[in-house]
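User: Sequence in, structure out. Go.
Assistant: Echoing your sequence, followed by the structure tokens.
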Amino acid sequence: MNYLINKLLVLPGILLGISIHEFSHGYAAVKMGDDTPRIQGRLTLNPIHHIDPMGFLCLLLFGFGWAKPVMINSRNFKNPRRDDAIVSIAGPLANLLTAALFVFFLKLADNYLPYNQLGQIIWEVLQNTVIINLVLMMFNLIPIPPLDGHHILGSIGGAKVWNFYYKYYDHLRFAMLLLIVFNGVSLIISPGINFVYNMLITLIF
């Protein structure tokens, strides 16, 4: 029963984090000149339009998963290299801003929520939303396909980096799978999550 309750307390953060992340990719792409996300109905915060069932289940059960990727046609960008980097970083940046906003709500909750069961539930939902958004941010910044980080690094590094990704694409995806299965991802991103979380707690009043 406690396991089910804990998962329900995490659910709002997962749904919001996924929706914010994918919406931001789509919004940035449209602003850069590619209308594909709008045509495909991805410019919405409705999680139904962004959830990949298997990825959502993995995220809910194991803490790592994926959403339905926003389709982008970089040929519509005015400056493909720059614009692809902007679109790729928009998702993680949106998760960071969402985490910061909910840290602010968390501080308000600390000061004004009554110390009872309902107040504790609200506090845990707020904290879980902060953590989930930081997990999504840090996870997607890992520079391994198909995550956002490899698009960002490729856009910065240019042809040599893209050629490396193209040559070793399958190997890198397999390496990512091994990292997830053997909990390597958690070891990689946990220090960054803790650092950003503590920074937000310190800076936001």
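User: And one key feature?
Assistant: Residues 2-203 form one domain.
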